[in-house]
Each structure stands twice: as C-alpha cells, then as structure tokens.
Amino acid sequence: QVQLVESGGGLVQSGGSLTLSCAASGIIFSLYRMDWYRQAPGKQRELVASTTPADKTSVEDSVKGRFTITRDDSNKMVTLQMNNLKPEDTATYFCNADGRWAGRGNHWGQGTQVTVSS
Q1: Whole-angstrom Cα distance, residue 8 to residue 57?
Q2: Count of CB atoms situated within 10 Å of the CB of 54
C-alpha cells in the first residue's frame, strides 16, 4: 500500500520559514519523480517544485530563490524548505510521487496546510 505522509505545515508570519516533509512508503522511491503542489482556495492545483530520480530539481518562478526541494532516497523522504514566505504562499501543499515514466503509478498525499499572515 502506497502512502505519502506530509508534515510541517502551520501558521507563520510573512517573512518566516517552514519546512515541509513527505515520507513515502510502499514504493521504490528512487524510481519516482517527487513533486510538491499547492492549492489555494478557489484556485487550481499548481506545481511548485520537482525533483527527478536523477536528483535534478526545479521550482516554479514565483518561489525561485525562496523554496528548495531536496530528496533523500535512503529514507524515502522529500522536503520543501520555504523561506521568506509571503501571504500569497498560503495554500494546502501536497506531495506527489509520479512513477508513470517507469510504468508505475501516480500517488498523492493528503496535504498539509500552510498559512502565511501579513
């Protein structure tokens, strides 16, 4: 059974930092691209950051220079370090494990809420 469990969300003031973690189980982690998405109320879910099985990372333009994604294949974890948070970063953040390129599945975590106050 595949599980992705996010943690680390919360309430923070503008300019503050949070670290989100996603612990995976039930998958061969090293085969999966690991992504962080977010969804704000009334908006579509959007991709925030990705890390490939080759550990190539990318982040969406609005968070570039503020957010960093890292993966730890040995512990089956992916983290999203978020610095200099802004009110517009307020959203539910979701971990995604995408193994479709390898004929595997696409899996979602339950989400963790991040709220940034101004």
Answers
A1: 21
A2: 8
Residue 87, sorted as left (phi over 0), alpha (psi -120 to 50) or beta, turns out to be alpha
- pLDDT tens for each residue of 76-107: 999 999 999 999 999 999 999 999 999 999 99
Nearest to 34 by CA among 76, 92, 91, 90: 76
Q: What's the token pair of residue 81?
A: 């370090």
* Residue with tokens 């370090």, as numbered in its chain: 81
CA distance 95 to 6: 7
pLDDT digits (tens, 9 = 90+) for 37-57: 999 999 999 999 999 999 999
Cβ neighbours of residue 10 under 8 Å, at least 6 residues apart? Answer: 18, 113, 114, 115
